Amino acid sequence: MPKKVDHEARRLEISEALWRIAGTRGLDSVSLRDVAAEADISLGRLQHYFHSRDEMLLFALRHGNRLADQRIRAHIEALTEEPSPRTVLRTCLSTMLPLDEKSRTGLLVAASYFTRAVHDETLRAEAKDGIPQLRALFTDQLRAAAERGDLAPDRATEEEAMLLISLVDGLSAYVLLDVHTPEQALRLLDLHLTNLFDAKERHADH
Amino acid sequence: MPKKVDHEARRLEISEALWRIAGTRGLDSVSLRDVAAEADISLGRLQHYFHSRDEMLLFALRHGNRLADQRIRAHIEALTEEPSPRTVLRTCLSTMLPLDEKSRTGLLVAASYFTRAVHDETLRAEAKDGIPQLRALFTDQLRAAAERGDLAPDRATEEEAMLLISLVDGLSAYVLLDVHTPEQALRLLDLHLTNLFDAKERHADH
């Protein structure tokens, strides 16, 4: 294996050890030593790949974000030939909820990272990195829905897209805390989408 | 000072030291020793009041929740004589957003606590402790609004109350990450409330 590919593969293996810890007891007080033990390598070996806890967390977070993007894309590609903008939106948003172990673990890594990011500008930039693209994607879908007559045109805005993103973030936190079951969170998301899209029907038909 | 009152007063002083750390660099890797240093007491003295980091975090979280309740109540009492249910709702919800240093710090303590609570049933029970009361309060306000004809009756539900709580939680997280300014979060909250209450007008008038 070329040296660079091998280096990346080792870093992914270590990330997976970190994720296993995140999924079972959380990362709150996890040290490089704990992760080395979980990955079954020495601390010195781990430090060859990651120089600090933050560097390791950052790598694991980026890896998790890539996996989440892939999950969203795979769910969209699995849809029927011509999914409506509303279906695309719901698919993306529900994939962001912790409905299975993988997305749950991804959110736990992100949450571990969150409290550090609040106090560190570099980490914060990374944590919010994907949000503008997500907002643009959702705004596009809302506009496409309005063009088809599925949504009131005045609801096809960046602000409505940010409401959707913020709501899913809050719903996810409450699933992790067992306030909502995953099913309840999905029903609440569907209620919000029904309110959003039905406003148009009410406006036009009643 | 009676001994019990003194004990409680000392615990509050230590909590305030913890809160100062939460507001500046976060609690992610904060030890009892760090808090003792910030409170300007010895570690042994601190351990006289708190036997573990979790006990200290729990006390500080409960204290913070009490302060947040007091802030909400003070804001409601400052309203004009007969505030509408919609005004009461907006006042409660906006007080839950990190619009000033105190609520920001309170949310940071809660966030520090969050990742531990996900993996610990006792801590989780505490973290979600206030949510049923909040849901009941908001559901009551929605029902009162519907009775006055300010809200479509089918929107006066526990589910709409949970959407409001979940949304404010997500908006708050994004303010802490600098995705939204506090003003933008407040505008998004107002957009959601307008959508909620205007659905009725659209239904009835157009």
Helix percentage of chain A? over 70%
Radius of gyration of chain A: 20 Å
Sheet-strand content of chain A, in percent, reads: under 5%
Low-confidence segments of chain A, given as residue ranges, are none
Question: What would you call the shape of chain A?
Answer: elongated
Alpha-carbon distance between the termini of chain A?
66 Å
Assembly category: homodimer
How many extended strands of chain A?
A: 0
Q: Mind summarizing the main beta sheet of chain A?
A: none
Mean pLDDT of chain A: 87
Tell me about this structure.
2 copies of one chain form a homodimer. Chain A is mainly alpha-helical. Chain A has helices at residues 3-24, 32-39, 43-49, 53-77, 85-96, 101-118, 121-127, 131-147, 158-176, 182-205. In chain A, helix 6 runs antiparallel to helix 7 (121-127). Chains A and B meet through helix 6, helix 9 and helix 10 of A and helix 6, helix 9 and helix 10 of B.
Topology:
The structure is a homodimer of 206-residue chains.
Chain A: H1 3-24, H2 32-39, H3 43-49, H4 53-77, H5 85-96, H6 101-118, H7 121-127, H8 131-147, H9 158-176, H10 182-205
Helix pairs in contact in A: 1-2, 1-4, 1-6, 2-3, 4-5, 4-6, 5-8, 5-10, 6-7, 8-9, 9-10
Question: Can I get a quick summary?
Answer:
The structure is a homodimer of 206-residue chains. Chain A has helices spanning 3-24, 32-39, 43-49, 53-77, 85-96, 101-118, 121-127, 131-147, 158-176, 182-205.
Name its key features.
0% strand, homodimer, 206 residues, mainly alpha
